[in-house]
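**User:** Hello, beginner here. Are you able to go through the protein record under this note? It all follows right here:
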Amino acid sequence: MKQNIAQKLARPAILKLKPYSSAREEFTGNEGIFLDANESPFNKPWNRYPDPFQQRLRQRLAEIKGVERENIILGNGSDETIDMLFRTFCEPGKDKVLSVSPTYGMYKVSAGINGVDYETVLLNEDFSLPVEQLLEKSDKNTKLLFLCSPNNPTGNRFNDDDMRVLLEKFTGLVVVDEAYVDFSSAGSWVDALKEYPNLVVLQTLSKAWGLAAIRLGMAFASKEIISLLMKVKPPYNVNTLTQEKALEALSDLVRVKKRVALTINERDIMMKALSVISVVKKVYPSDANFFLIRVDEPDVVYDYLLQRGIIVRNRSNEPLCRGCLRISVGTPKQNPYLLKVLMAYPVGLQESQGSESWKSISDWLVTPPRNAVRMRKTKETEITVDIDLDGNAKANINTGLGFFDHMLEQIARHSGCDLSIQVKGDLHVDEHHTLEDTAIALGEAFAEALGNKLGIERYGFALPMDDCAAIVLLDFGGRPELVWDAKFKREKIGDLPTEMFQHIFKSFAIGAKCNLYIKAKGENEHHKIEAIFKALARAIRMAIKREPGADFLPSTKGLL
């Protein structure tokens, strides 16, 4: 296959097109008096146009994906990258695109917007690719072949051998939409870009990364294809806020991998459980963060779930999906509720919407997840705190201070919370900023995870340890305050200066908006501070305890 396929397939108008040159392309520095782009000189930094080529973001993605920056173009969601492909390679009223059915609906919509014929071939009964039919359907004017893998709505990943046949024999560009690839056990087709010059791979931060709100889509392809797409894209198509939020997320790959693993585990549990529930006639295999189930009366079951606060997608009118509902994988708190509601079908069908009997059951079942991710970034520190108040006492702590890590691990272990804290701090200066900002971020994470605080115990206290006695009284009442009664004879314990202990707990109280009364006595200084951290954890454990479905606020004021 010729390496200049991009030039061969592109619209003549695009080959001749001289793209718009913005002020931020002509001067790319960060210093100087900017009088070149008719921007306002006020309201920095938001008064400036964003980097039109998203250089830092593309470089970070290149490092993660193992490609060159020139192999990447970014869009305002994957929908914009899809539209770029149409405008670059498809002549309106002449060219065609090809896809399978059922699949993601925006391919057809984009074709209609761009005046391009959209043709499809029905998937095989097992949702596999009809390779020969696709090749027979295409001709010299078929410029693009869209393959969503894992496919939406069927959830399956297409067979690699079938995909390779199409990549080798299809005469246009093969566009592989990998919106759900992170949930698949197989690898990405990005790794095959050098092997197939006609390959374009689409990905997104909307699914595995949990960033649907920022609208960032990615296209990976040969440098020749990307350079043509760059001519077509709007000059400032990805805003500064999106670029910054994406870079922030891309700095913590561990957290994303953890959430993907959790989603996959929940998906597998859900699919097994649903396969033995009587209303469910079939559960289809999935490599995505969703799956299809088939029921006898999809409209009735859909409405039944909707009345109980569960919104799924009715796909029963799609080809090959008769009777199918599409279910996205929720949290470990949401998924059991769906299972219990479906187990109650059809008995629950007799209960009218909002009836007292059903309300009492659903109130008991629904316990909103209490987790939070808190990021704090200053000139001195960059901190991510990930907490689940209803976790399993798992800890992943890295502050750069070994003894502080050990103390924070006590909070997770003795409170029962899952706690991940990742810190980059200016320890080359001293410990102050790292300790202060970590405590603030941890407190803010607790405050966010507690949410409306309905049904919590609110108060907690205290324990002894060896030769020491530590008393920690805690109130998540919304008013920050610290009363401190603890003295230390040593300058440092481990690598922590003892003069910072009071400040750590003061910062936590401010972030968590809680009252803290801390008193400790004893001979062993290590045991004394460890007893305080453990007592705090036990106080937290008591205070965050919640009655399932409880809707009362533990306050006579009606406000916390």
